[in-house]
User: Fold Saccharopine dehydrogenase from Selenomonas sputigena.
Amino acid sequence: MGKALIIGAGGVASVAVHKCCQNSDAFEEICIASRTKAKCDALKEKLAGGKTKITTAQVDADKTDELISLIEREKPDVVLNLALPYQDLTIMDACLATKTHYVDTANYEPEDTAKFEYKWQWEYNDRFKEAGITALLGSGFDPGVTGVFSAYALKHHFDEINYIDILDCNAGDHGYPFATNFNPEINIREVSAKGSYWEDGKWVETEPMEIKRVYNFPEVGEKDMYLLHHEELESLAINIPGIRRIRFFMTFGESYLRHLKCLENVGMTSIEPIEFEGKKIIPLQFLKAVLPDPASLGPRTKGKTNIGCIFRGKKDGKEKTYYVYNVCDHEACYKEVGSQAVSYTTGVPAMIGAMLVMNGTWKGAGVYNIEQFDPDPFMDALNRWGLPWQESFTPELVD
Ligand code: NDP
Assistant:
């Protein structure tokens, strides 16, 4: 039993809040705090009346002082950061100042450079150790469940994992010619960046969307997928012994890519400020303002997601292959919590990570990536809290 402070009130936070309330044995109390308090209040209104006590607060998470006052006032056992990657460091600073555990779902990215990597957050390791508190990084689906799957594969199926392919398929159809399933700014920054994968101890860089494969996803069917750089590659390359190559593929439809190319060509995806009617604006932030709000896609999205990892390595001297994945249905998610599957597949693991840190199942002073903890309690919780996983020992491989 404990109390979580949830920062952010967007698509992912909404699911995490629903799940904390379903899991009221663990989450006796939650405080939802975000920039726009009305969104926190709307969530509270939807969920109040259950066993979990809900409070709300306004906070600018770019300001460490505001966060410290909030944490001192609310006294949570854990802070679950579901704001944007730009706020990771200020929230970690506030957790250090108040000696409170920290959990997030995305690694820090400076707002003015489209480059995400763990180095800034890993630098907090000594300070978290000294303070005797835990920072759990990347407790969403990817990163998140993909790291848990990797730790689980290593623990139960392999002596050594040599190859990992992470496959993220969203076959949902929202009926719009172009919209993003989570924060458009973060999403577009991710997909318009150069791709890269880890091979033989070094990064191999590709042009954006240069490497394409077609994969026949269980319960979904054939989809085009493209190699992207993705943050869990960085930590898995270090934490999975014997690894030779890790790649990440995400599916994109033709309409999405055509629109993205066009928006790129006219400069709408740029993060360089421009002068507009006497004011500086960032084209990508303006684009975000005109695109559909990801939260509004829920009622319109049909179809499934399938996200998982294919591992190849050795067990007892023999070559072995193992595929573990989750299939999630957009409409079923909407029916359950009022959000589509992309928010759902992130919000559920966020709740699970916060629970395991809060109740001490996962403990350790310092900054940890998710694959560094025992995967078993997380794998059990996925089955229990709405993201059941399936496995295959003879999957189709990606060439
Ligand atoms: P949304 O844009 O829907 O929500 C972000 C929320 O953070 C909003 O409520 C926003 O407030 C709030 N926020 C932004 N800036 C501040 C600030 N300075 N102070 C306080 N609150 C702030 O994003 P999502 O819910 O889609 O994503 C949340 C996080 O989850 C992101 O970091 C994203 O990268 C990550 N993610 C991780 C995935 C994974 O699998 N690991 C997958 C998908 C997302 P306001 O309402 O005022 O704008």
User: Anything to note?
Assistant: The two ends are 47 Å apart (CA to CA). The first strand starts at residue 2 and ends at 7. Residues 8-13, 34-36, 39, 59-62, 82-85, 87, 105-106, 140-144, 182-183, 186, 294, 346 surround NDP (CB under 6 Å). Residues 31 and 55 are 5 Å apart (CA to CA).
